[in-house]
Each structure stands twice: as structure tokens, then as C-alpha cells.
Specification:
Elements (H helix, E strand, L loop, with lengths): L1 H25 L15 H14 L2 E3 L18 H23 L3 H4 L4 E4 L14 E4 L3 E4 L10 H22 L4 H5 L15 H7 L10 H14 L2 H9 L3 H22 L3 H17 L1
Parallel strand pairs: 1-2, 2-4
Antiparallel strand pairs: 3-4
Helix pairs in contact: 2-3, 3-5, 3-11, 5-8, 7-10, 8-10
Length: 285
């Protein structure tokens, strides 16, 4: 009997040793994760100084597949394209709003991330997506590698994107009167806006073909087109429309001006003038 008990004890002890051995074998060694903080480049420091620290905006230029549509042929911007593009955005967009709206305006109402993409975001209908606003928290800017800051047309097209997308963010914070806007051109919105003739669109009361996609985009296009245009350029746009179309565009313009005044106590025309001065400074320097 004693012999049997001793045998059982030996078996039990062997089981414990086996379990201990397995536990030791399954224990992971050194972690394969890299916990080292990445070394900041001069560009990273510049972004911190000009975007992150003063405005709490993270300008992301390093590739992150979670921030882009992986079904599109997209790629990160060339490193030497990043700072020039961000300088344009800061001087024309941030500085203009900060001058007219107050130093803290962009700090309070802004996307918390700007994602830069180097190439063209092409759509199957033959159009290009120049920018995306994501829930008021992120703005993605495409075609960064193609920006020529010495060419006014190139700068205007590029800054049109963020001016347009920022209007969406303003609207998300304080909505405009969609019902009143809808009454101006109620029957002329279309899903095939990209097939429309620009002159026809202006004659119907729209500043661009894209404005005809829906009332949300119409408001953002009306505001952003005025912001990227000098007074002379905008007057020329109005003059090119029919009498009826011109009256409707002017009606929408008045609603944009009133919205900025009521929602943010901001002089929209002063904002337009500041953006124009800053655009000229970008091109000449």
C-alpha cells in the first residue's frame, strides 16, 4: 500500500514538473514590438511648430493605410512637397480666418488632422476628388505633388479644396438654413452634375457644375468660390451668367454672408479680401 502511495506521489510530482516545463516553454521571450520613439525630422518639427502646437492639428504625410481608400491607386506625397503645400494652406486658409475671425478661431473650429496624398484621386466617372472632409475631424488633400505655388491657377485650385471642405466643418458646427437655400434653385440639382455644361449651370444659378450635386455642396461651393476669387474675378463670373442665374447666385451669396455674420460674427467679404492678399503673397514669395 505504501508502495502504491509512493508511486502516486511520484506521478503527481512528474505532472507538476511537466506543467512547469510547458509553462516555461510557452512564455514569450523579448517583445517583437518596437517601443522606440521615432526620431523627428526637421519637417516633423516644423509641422509641430506651425500646426500641432498652435492649432492642435496633426498634419499627416507619412503613409497610413487606415486614412485612405485602399481601393484607389494612391501614394504618399514626396517629402519635399509637404512643407510648401502646408505653407500655402497655413498662409491662405489659417491666417485669413485667424485675422478676420480672431486668433483662436481655427483653434476652436478645425479638423484635428490633415492628411496629405501625393497623387490624383480619380473617379470612375472621369472626375477627380480633390479633397475629403471626414466628420469634421479630418481633411484629406490630394495632388500635393502637383502643386506649383508660383502659379496662381495651381494655388487657387489647391486652396479651393480646403476652403470648400472647411465650409463643411463650419456647417457641421453651426448649420445653415437648408430649407431657405433649397428654395432658390429647387429643381436644378442633379446626380449627373459632371456631365453638365458650366454655362448652363451658371445660367441656372450655380457657381460651378459641382454645386449642382446637392444643397450642401452648393453652399460650400458658393462660399469657397468667392473666397478663392478676387472681387474682379467674381464680378466676371456673375457677368457671364444670365440675368436670372446672376440673381440667384447673388441671392445665395447674400445667404452665405449672413450665415458667417450670424454664426461666427465674421465679415465674409473681409475674409475674402484677406485670402486674396495672402494668395498674392504666397505666389510672390
Amino acid at each position: 500500500m505504501k508502495t502504491i502511495k509512493q508511486y502516486k506521489a511520484i506521478v503527481l510530482l512528474a505532472g507538476v514538473l511537466t506543467l512547469a516545463a510547458c509553462t516555461h516553454e510557452d512564455r514569450p521571450g523579448d517583445s517583437q514590438l518596437d517601443y522606440k520613439q521615432p526620431v523627428k525630422t526637421a519637417l516633423d518639427t516644423w509641422i509641430d511648430t506651425n500646426y500641432l502646437n498652435p492649432y492642435n492639428i496633426n498634419a499627416q504625410y507619412k503613409w497610413n493605410q487606415n486614412t485612405v481608400d485602399n481601393n484607389r491607386f494612391l501614394f504618399p506625397p514626396a517629402v519635399n512637397s509637404v512643407q510648401p503645400a502646408l505653407e500655402v494652406v497655413k498662409q491662405i486658409w489659417i491666417n485669413s480666418y485667424s485675422t478676420i475671425g480672431g486668433a483662436d478661431f481655427v483653434k476652436k473650429v478645425a479638423p484635428r488632422e490633415i492628411v496629405l496624398v501625393g497623387g490624383v484621386n480619380s473617379n470612375t466617372n472621369g472626375t477627380r476628388t480633390l479633397g475629403i472632409a471626414d466628420s469634421g475631424q479630418r481633411i484629406t488633400l490630394f495632388e500635393v505633388d502637383y502643386l506649383n505655388r508660383k502659379n496662381r491657377a495651381s494655388v487657387t485650385e489647391f486652396i479651393h479644396t480646403i476652403q470648400h471642405e472647411y465650409v463643411h466643418i463650419l456647417n457641421q458646427n453651426k448649420p445653415f438654413d437648408e430649407k431657405a437655400w433649397q428654395k432658390v434653385t429647387p429643381a436644378d440639382y442633379t446626380a449627373t452634375w459632371h456631365l453638365e455644361n458650366l454655362q448652363t449651370s451658371k445660367n441656372l444659378g450655380f457657381v460651378t457644375n459641382y454645386a449642382r450635386s446637392n444643397i450642401i455642396e452648393d453652399f460650400a461651393e458658393t462660399a469657397s468660390v468667392i473666397l478663392i476669387s478676387s472681387k474682379a474675378e467674381y464680378d466676371a463670373l456673375l457677368a457671364s451668367a444670365s440675368d436670372s442665374g446672376r440673381a440667384k447666385i447673388k441671392q445665395k451669396e447674400a445667404m452665405v454672408v449672413q450665415y458667417y455674420k450670424d454664426a461666427f460674427n465674421m465679415d465674409f467679404y473681409a475674409l475674402r479680401d484677406a485670402a486674396q492678399v495672402n494668395t498674392t503673397n504666397v505666389i510672390n514669395n
